[in-house]
Amino acid sequence: MSVMATTGARRTLEEFFTHDLDGADAAETLERVAALLDALERGTVRAASRTGEGEWRSHAWVKRGILAAFRHSETVEMDWPGGAVDKSLVPARRLGLGDGVRMVPGGSSVRRGAHLAQGVVVMPPSYVNIGAHVGAGTMVDSHVLVGSCAQVGNDVHLSTAVQLGGVLEPVGARPVVVEDGAFIGAQCGLYEGVVVRERAVLAPGVILTAGTTVYDLVRQTEWRGEIPGGAVVVPGSRPARGDYADVLGLSLYAPVIVKYRDSSTDAATVLEGALR
């Protein structure tokens, strides 16, 4: 995904940030950083995108551009309730009626270079970091973190205290992805580039990393790094191995897919049934 420069023969943003910036003109670099952050906020550039085959591909050049913003920033005082000190090129965004977003007052912040689509609601206090993309109609509930470059689809519900881990380095690492229509229950944590597919439902307290094994009781298989579309996941456990574990009755965390949503069930209904 490229953004064309404003004048004829100049390199695109992708071409500019793909190359080594050590010898680049400082003024041009600052100009390109600003253009990249603007494009990220508009949603015309994203830190990762879905291919035609359904895989999510990270755009390393976007992360290089974000890192350049930090590298070329100064640490300055900022006009913010209670005071703030941060990098000069990546301050908190100022949202207005024209953004089509409902930002409820009470301590939330959306950083420069983060995209909030029309109809997003952000409840306080929450934080959306640079490079993140939050799709139309999504609810960001209280105490939610949308980490750097995390990709959140349309009509997603991020319940209270959900944590979506961020990633800037290594630049090729895939960010956390939550696809359209997913419901992420309270105090869930998604890290290390986990992908939650469309309309999946995570019960409160589910923690997922790239190496977490998720046991699918419906299809009798196992998943790592991805939750399939429509799956309903609840926290579970399995016995730990070894004599010592047997003596103490120890068990290990093991999230479990207990059912799949059909086209007519909403997230709240299917989750209530799964937890009974």
Describe the structure.
- The protein is α/β, with parallel strands linked by helices and 276 residues long.
- It has a domain at 209-276: Hexapeptide repeat proteins (UDP N-Acetylglucosamine Acyltransferase, domain 1), CATH 2.160.10.10.
- The protein is 18% helix and 26% strand.
- It has a 10-stranded mixed beta sheet, with helices on one face. A 6-stranded parallel beta sheet has the order 6-9-12-15-18-21, with no helix packed on it.
- Strand 3 and strand 4 (84-87) form a beta hairpin.
- Residues 24-71 form the Tetrahydrodipicolinate-N-succinyltransferase chain A domain.
- Pfam families: Hexapep_2, THDPS_N_2.
- One of its GO terms (molecular function) is transferase activity.
Set down the secondary structure blueprint.
Layout: H1 13-18, H2 26-42, E1 48-50, E2 56-58, H3 60-71, E3 75-78, E4 84-87, E5 102-103, E6 109-110, E7 115-116, E8 121-122, E9 127-128, E10 133-134, E11 139-140, E12 145-146, E13 151-152, E14 157-158, E15 163-164, E16 177-178, E17 183-184, E18 189-190, E19 195-196, E20 201-202, E21 207-208, E22 213-216, E23 221-224, E24 226-227, E25 231-234, E26 237-239, H4 243-248, E27 251-253, E28 256-260, H5 267-275
Helix pairs in contact: 2-3
